[in-house]
């Protein structure tokens, strides 16, 4: 559940005006999604807990959209050439893997909430769906934790201190919130094993309170993300580091015709031509001490 803002200097997909507008819309959508999650868990203590499940479904769906946008944006920056990830570890392990892991985890939470909503509406099939709902409600936050850890492994070459503070202001709340969701899911499974619950009572009180705290922390992180996106668009105020030698530079070289189109040829090293019949030995460098002696 991360709105990943890359450590790279810019996001290169689309025109600049369209790109900035989509970034702001994406950050605002994430804030709205965290509000929906917070309201959904709080509504579990109201007289209409089913409405809370609807809010949770909408919140998880909005988070899926946010992460899919990040995934498409990072792939568009390299013209969707997945083979270039071989030369850019951050692109593969952070900018591609993190949105993908968060998307899968959020889909699992969306399906778990959907199963709870179906049980509440239909009133049957508890034993068929509740087991899968509990498993997915635990697997989803675990993937969030994995994505948060991966997202903290960003590569900086010449990082501005202001940029790193903004980055950590988003990463730390998301990691803490993911841990709270995992702890809540574990406690909920233990409570369910001690006393079987069905339908809307499948989520225990301790789990709901931990999810409320986690959603509140997510909201704080989403607000920090809005500030970070705004600052990263202001190039005059915040100088972002530029990663060199990565996939984007190789793509630019391909477009300018300075590198072969076949990516497999990149790994071939250019060896000097050697005459096989009359090989010439390579002269060894003269030590600095011998040069001084010869001058004397």
From TrEMBL:
The chain crosses the membrane at residues 27-46, 52-72, 93-120, 132-149, 169-187, 207-227. The keyword Ribosomal protein does not apply. Keywords: Membrane, Transmembrane, Transmembrane helix. The keyword Membrane applies. Residues 273-296 are annotated as: Disordered. PANTHER family: OS02G0257200 PROTEIN. This is Polypyrimidine tract-binding-like protein.
